[in-house]
Amino acid sequence: MSQRILFNLLQVLVVLAFAPLVTGVTNRLKEIVQSKRGPSVLQPYRDLWKLFHKDEVISEESSWIFRAAPYVVFIAPLFVTLLIPVLTAYPLFFAFMADMVGGGFVLALGGFFAGLAAVDAANPYGAMGASRTRMVGFLAEPVFIIVFFTVAFTADSTIPYIVQKHWVSSPAAFLEPSHILLMAAFFMLILAEKGRIPVDNPSGHFELAMIEESKALEYSGCGAALMKWGGQMKLFVLLCIFLNVLVTPWGLAGAQEIGQVVLAIPLVLCKILMFVFVLVIIESSLAKLRLFRISEFLGSAFITSVAAMLMRLFSL
Amino acid sequence: MIVFVILAVPLVAAALACLPFRRLAGGVTFVGCLAVLALTIRLALEITAGRPVLAIPKWVAVDGLSALVLLLIAFVGSTAALFSLGYMARESHEPKRLRLYYASYNLFIFSMLAIPVLAEPTLVWIVVELTTLCSALLVSFENTREALEAAWKYVVLSLMGAAVALLGFLVLFAAMRAAGGDAYTWDGLIAAAPRMPPILLQTAFVLILVGLGTKVGLVPLHTWLPDAHSQAPSPVCALLSGVETTAVLYVILRLFPVLKAAPASHAELWAIVFGLISVGTAAFLLLQVRDYKRMFAYSTVEHMGIILLAAGLGNSAAHQAALYQALTHTLAKSFCFFAAGAALLAAGTREIGSVRGLIRTSPAAGISLLFGGLAIAGAPPFAVFLSEFSIFRAGLAGGHYVATGLLVLFIIIGFFGIMWHVNRMVFGQADGNAQVCLPASCLTALVFAAAPVILFGVYMPAPVHELLRLGAAALGR
Amino acid sequence: MSDPSTTFAVLGSLNMLAGGLFLLCAFGIVATRQVKGCLGLFIIQSLLLAASALFLGLQHGSWHLCGVALVNLIAKPVLIPWLLRRTVHEEVYSRREIDQVLNIPTSLLIALALVILAYFLAIPVQQALEPQFQSGNVAIGLAGLFLGAYTLAVRREALPLLLGLLAMENGAFFVGIAISRELPLLVELAIATDSLIVAFILGVLTRAAHQHIGSTAVGALAALKEEVQR
Fold it and tell me: Among A10-24, A246-260, B298-312, C155-169, where is mean pLDDT lowest?
């Protein structure tokens, strides 16, 4: 049992350590695709280090929410890490603390606090970004719910570890149309939730056009570092859910020994690297959608997920 | 053998019509259609003498019903070709467009001739789609905004119906396989019908009725009909209205014996209901129409409803009456559209309100319009009156009092509608336009088209009667 | 992994996968704004039709179906776009439809309702067939048919209307490859040729509309009514 707690903590450490690396690799690859050299892949670490050593400036008009939000945003993905399969294929110590829906709520809690903090600071761009994020959020909610429902219906459970077993075992179940459509719908969800193109431009500097980024505009020093790190970890967590449960449920540690678990770390990183490749290709070839077209994008995701659900319900 | 010659002649004529000689296209078309008519008459005589023609056993076969439809296509094809000679020359198109017109005309005739001849239902479906495609360019011939809109509506709605009908035919094939049948022909379907799963048969019938009903012009899928018929050149309208709708209705009628052999299917009820809805809607729409070609188009919808209803009445007298109605409607409707074409040449506009005193402006056009209106509305002594009367008799004999009563009511409403419009156009004070002389070929075509309409009202030759009887027998098995 | 029942199951799953993606393409044809995107989705849909025919053929050991797959592979994804490029002017392909009759999310929701309707209608038909013919193609094909008809109702540009028609035929054919497998190859060839002729004639009509009216938004033409003054 102590081994399982150990592995759980190991998962948390892996997420903490490698989340900025994913962002660094993404940025570097995007620049390379555009024929530039790009920053080093370790640049996000240096940014975090720099931010932790700077002074913090907090507005007098803000309340406790502004001070508490970075911690909530930082801790929420860590909580979810305890619940999902990152390195192992069998449930760990905290795995039954909450299921997929609970994990989704915890992640949403982080986003909720970030939005409140953006409004709290009375920065107009922050409020604009917060309201736009809410719009994208409520359009994405039906998709989330349908995806969770279909996954739970298919695998007869809502615990991610048990769901993952369903698709690891048989190729016929993997190739089912509902599964493929679920992957497509979830992919579109990740693009929307994390503010990637075509929903939002993550490397844009123009505040009027920002959706996600403007929520963290007011922060400096330690708060900014925590918000940034928390955002990067949220992406890492979403990717773990996506890749380890839906897309490539193989490659996770099967037995309870430390060697296999440590071996799973580079495998997970490889899977994430492949995803980053696909993401960079999509980001480089599409343009950002206009704001009112986002509803069509998420509408298509909704249709895809409902089609998956229908296929599963009618047992085709 | 003769069947292949009948099919080959229009193809050859289409090829020859593309050659760049001045008068060749129209002449070749007319001669080709006359040849087809002669061959078809000979074929029909052979069949009435009791020798059904089997060209390729599972693919090409002609029996009484097919011969009747072939005869109608050939006859209207020839008269319309004759009418086109004068009409298109008067409309002054450039020679290249005229060649395109005649080539499409021949291809259209070819595709319609192939419908009754093929015995495999999927091939029949393909040829029905071909008729839509070959006539698309004919409908949009004038290249005005309205003509293109009408052509698009026509093609889109017809092809949509064709896709639905394709599904119906595929389900029918599956049903036949489930019944253990072997040959996917009309006869093979009748043989395998008692063992087919009823749900498949019903699904197939509904799909085919809805799909091909779009092409026939059954309400509520008829919306392309008035538009296409008001915008196409008049000889093309005669073909579309008179023959194409009848040929596609023939395909639907071929399904009736199959459904009769299978128990507990309500094909006849569907036919009666759909037929009544079409007749009623068309009759009421006729009252408020403003364009006389659209008026004749609505009359086509009405008559298609009447034929479908008669086929649904069930007894063999009703079947014979239905085929008689198809015959008389084709002849009368083509004559009506020739008259409308003549009126258009004389008056220059399609609006009923703008045409007055046609009988003074152009006596030929006025008289033919009057006769056409009377004929199609069902006045004695024209043929349509006799056929409608036989339908009434058959309906009353079969006990369908409600249906027959409603039918009588709707036909009377339609009669008044048509006659009111025609009277307004033909009589009254002329607008002072100069006298217009119609081309000679148009006048000849009008006379040739009028002859059977009057003839069949008073006397029916024995071979025609025999053909109708054979056709009804094919329907009633 | 190599025993026949697993192969049967895997081919069945692959066939269903092709069906699911077929349905997605049908949704895409309803909603895609760009004409080129619509054409691309139609090509993918035809490829999926051929793939489904291939999987069903391998599953049931029918060379006939593999022949059908080949015919469809050549006719629809390859020849039809080529024909359209030849007949329709180049400029039409760069168009986008700004507006449909309804806005796109509502359109997609109605399309979804149509798909559910199609599933319900297909269940009794599927149950009436023998077990070897039951593969879920009936429901998806019928849904494809309905979605194609819906495309014709909401779209205004000429080329998406044409693609909606061809998508309807794809849907009907998708049902056919599952339930009417032994249709003679001659008939299948004729149906494929027929699709080509449809594309050609409608392409010519689109060109005529482009030349004489100046726009190809033929669905928006509504001049012919009873009140028209000529």
Answer: A246-260
From the list B130, B173, B294, which residue is nearest C180 (CB)?
A: B173
Beta bridge partners of A49: none
Q: Is the dihedral of CA B351, B352, B358, B362 positive or negative?
A: positive
- Average pLDDT taken over every residue of chain A: 87
Taking 3-state DSSP, the helix, strand and coil percentages for chain B, each rounded to the nearest 5, stand at 80, 0, 20
Q: How far apart are CA A9 and CA A6, in angstroms?
A: 5
In the prediction, which pLDDT does B264 show?
A: 62
Whether the CB-CB separation of B391 and B311 falls below 8 Å is answered with: no
Return the number of other C-beta atoms located less than 10 Å from residue C94's C-beta.
9
Instruction: Give one word for A298, left, alpha or beta, with left for phi > 0 and alpha for psi -120 to 50.
Output: alpha
Question: Distance (Å, rounded) from C-alpha B175 to C-alpha C130?
Answer: 10
How far apart CA A55 and CA A57 sit, in angstroms, is 7
Mean pLDDT of chain B: 85
Residue C189's contacts (CB-CB under 8 Å, 6 or more residues apart) are C71
Q: CA–CA separation, A77 vs A99, rounded Å? A: 14
Structural tokens at position C91: 């400029």
The tens digit of pLDDT for each residue in B58-114 reads 778 888 888 889 999 999 999 999 888 888 887 777 888 888 888 899 999 999 999
Q: What is residue C230's predicted lDDT score, i.e. its pLDDT? A: 40
Nearest to A74 by CA among A236, A305, A244: A236
As a whole number, mean pLDDT of residues A77-87 equals 89
First to last CA, chain B: 28
pLDDT grade for C1, boundaries at 50, 70 and 90? very low
How many domains does chain A contain in total? 1
Q: Which of B58, B100, B132, B133 to mutate to test the interface with C (most CBs of C within 10 A)?
A: B133
Give the pLDDT band of residue B161 (cuts 50, 70, 90): very high
The Cα of C202 is separated from the nearest Cα of chain B by a number of Å equal to: 8
Residue A161 to residue A155: CA distance in whole angstroms = 10
Q: Is there a contact between C17 and A310 if contact means CB atoms under 8 Å apart? A: no
On whether any CB of chain B is under 8 Å from the CB of C118, the answer is no
Distance in angstroms (rounded) separating the CA atoms of residues A80 and A68: 19
For residue A99, the 8-state DSSP code is: -
Q: What residue segments make up the domains of chain C, in order of their start?
A: 4-220
Size of interface B-C (CB pairs under 8 A): 145
Whole-angstrom distance, CA of residue B33 vs CA of residue B446: 16
Cα separation, B212 vs B158, in Å, equals: 8
pTM of the model: 0.86
Residue C168 contacts B where some CB pair is shorter than 8 Å: yes
